[in-house]
């Protein structure tokens, strides 16, 4: 029988003495081990692996890379604040994320348009690039655009005499290297089908594999629905944490939950598996923080599309937090990329409007441009454009839902926790109720089990009784009210 353990609902020791509401789970939505041999065989298919290795020129000993960074003469409106050197910095980071790959040279060359010529550039520039590739002894070239056409790919490989990669193929290899769970590996395997079909120019060759992968994903989808049903049964508010890759999503969750088992890495796409982490707010309300795969600019939609089901499940939360690395020189483009990706994933306008925006790494803002990259940022007259973009971006964001933090220094985290708490009380339809109950009595024990107990204090007039301020969902409150009536309720406020 095929199974993927998505959520373990076994009882665990409560985190607070008075709040004995049982809650336990495994962090990952999918286990790292496969119990189904068919699934394992599908992902480790030697024939397909051989085709994949040949098509993408994969070598176990890595590559020495020359990066060709196009600089667009006419920028899209959403990219006005960026520079070619900032884009080059990200390209270098992508290559350095891959084990045994290193950058041995790079060049920035202006482009009027992405299409048209066989070599992407004219004869003069392509000859210069060819010479640079030869001089730095590169074993491969990374052209940092989303996808090269087949004619461009073939033409440039013929000219340079080494394999040529675009952003699609590089990001896909990073995904494959970082995928740990069965879910992530399945989704990466599905994401590589369009690339290989495009490179091999053969739609029939991959039909059977794609059909098999989608069948396995259907099984995963059923398991995901089961997890969602169980999660809803727990009646615990959820917060989806999204952001550009390496913006500090995992670091923020660690800071909010104080979970020392989380090990954030300063690496692009360190998180591919959607994972869930338990936290408790100051009012004792329990919350689930959902960590998600990071987004990035200039990749084909087919890459994110393969993760759509998992992401949509995560984004179906009570609240979304968008983490932005405010210290990064290209933070404006990164923020815009995340917003556009969320829209492409059909996140509702109401969810986007209520979304909290967290400007992370505020401790690095002063002098940050020298810390982010080893490539010196080009000296352009770009300041006015960036200032205008900053103003427009921040105007679009509700100032009440915008906060600066530093996960490293702890700055702003208490204010953020309060903001999360206030929003969740509304978004998750929480009811705050004050009870007067007999210590150790039936209702006392029911409240400990079935509510989040915010405060308790002894009745001065009769020490046998306690006042208990509790949080419920509206459904749970209605059930309790139907069972016990209003006799023990002092007050009830719906948020």
From TrEMBL:
Q: State the Gene Ontology terms under molecular function.
A: GTP binding; metal ion binding; ribosome binding
- Please give the InterPro entries that the UniProt record associates with this protein: G_HFLX_dom, GTP-bd, GTPase_HflX, GTPase_HflX_N, GTPase_HflX_N_sf, P-loop_NTPase
Q: Does the keyword Isomerase apply?
A: no
- Which keywords fit this entry according to its UniProt record? Coiled coil, GTP-binding, Magnesium, Metal-binding, Nucleotide-binding
Parts forming coiled coils: 203-230
Q: Where is the Hflx-type G domain?
A: 237-369
Can you cite an annotated GO cellular component? cytoplasm
Output the superkingdom of the source species.
Eukaryota
**Protein name per Swiss-Prot or TrEMBL:** Hflx-type G domain-containing protein
This chain's source organism reads: Didymodactylos carnosus
Organismal lineage: Eukaryota, Metazoa, Spiralia, Gnathifera, Rotifera
């Amino acid at each position: 029988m095929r199974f993927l353990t998505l959520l373990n609902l076994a009882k665990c020791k409560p985190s607070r003495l008075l709040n004995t509401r049982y809650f336990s789970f495994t962090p990952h939505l999918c286990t790292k081990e496969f119990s189904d041999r068919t699934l394992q065989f599908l992902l480790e298919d030697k024939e397909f692996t051989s085709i994949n290795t040949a098509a993408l020129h994969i070598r176990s000993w890595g590559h020495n890379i020359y990066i060709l960074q196009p600089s667009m003469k006419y920028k899209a409106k959403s990219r006005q604040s960026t520079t070619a050197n900032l884009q080059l910095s990200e390209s270098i980071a992508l290559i350095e994320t891959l084990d045994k790959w290193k950058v041995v040279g790079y060049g920035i060359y202006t482009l009027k348009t992405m299409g048209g010529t066989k070599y992407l550039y004219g004869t003069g520039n392509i000859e210069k690039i060819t010479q640079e590739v030869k001089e730095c002894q590169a074993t491969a070239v990374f052209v940092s655009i989303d996808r090269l056409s087949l004619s461009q790919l073939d033409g440039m490989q013929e000219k340079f005499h080494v394999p040529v990669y675009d952003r699609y193929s590089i990001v896909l290899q990073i995904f494959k290297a970082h995928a740990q769970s069965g879910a992530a590996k399945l989704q990466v395997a599905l994401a590589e089908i369009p690339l290989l079909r495009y490179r091999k120019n053969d739609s029939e060759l991959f039909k059977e594999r794609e059909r098999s992968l989608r069948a396995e994903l259907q099984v995963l989808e059923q398991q995901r629905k089961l997890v969602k049903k169980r999660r809803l049964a727990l009646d615990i508010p959820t917060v989806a944490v999204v952001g550009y890759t390496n913006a500090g999503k995992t670091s923020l969750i660690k800071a909010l939950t104080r979970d020392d088992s989380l090990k954030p890495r300063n690496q692009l796409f360190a998180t591919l598996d959607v994972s869930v982490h338990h936290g408790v707010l100051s009012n004792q309300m329990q919350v689930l923080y959902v960590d998600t795969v990071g987004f990035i600019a200039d990749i084909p939609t087919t890459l994110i599309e393969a993760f759509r089901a998992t992401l949509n499940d995560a984004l179906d939360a009570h609240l979304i937090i968008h983490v932005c690395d405010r210290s990064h020189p290209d933070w404006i483009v990164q923020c815009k990329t995340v917003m556009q990706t969320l829209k492409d994933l059909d996140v509702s306008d109401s969810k986007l409007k209520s979304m909290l925006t967290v400007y992370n790494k505020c401790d690095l803002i002063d002098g940050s441009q020298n810390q982010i990259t080893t490539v010196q940022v080009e000296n352009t007259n770009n300041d006015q454009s960036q200032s205008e973009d900053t103003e427009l971006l921040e105007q679009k964001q509700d100032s009440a839902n915008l906060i600066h933090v530093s996960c490293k220094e702890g700055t702003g985290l208490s204010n953020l926790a309060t903001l999360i708490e206030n929003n969740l009380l509304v978004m998750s339809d929480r009811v705050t109720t004050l009870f007067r109950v007999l210590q150790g009595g039936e209702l006392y024990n029911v409240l400990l089990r079935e509510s989040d107990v915010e405060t308790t204090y002894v009745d001065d007039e009769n020490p046998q009784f306690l006042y208990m301020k509790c949080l419920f969902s509206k459904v749970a409150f209605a059930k309790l009210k139907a069972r016990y009536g209003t006799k023990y309720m002092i007050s009830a406020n719906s948020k």
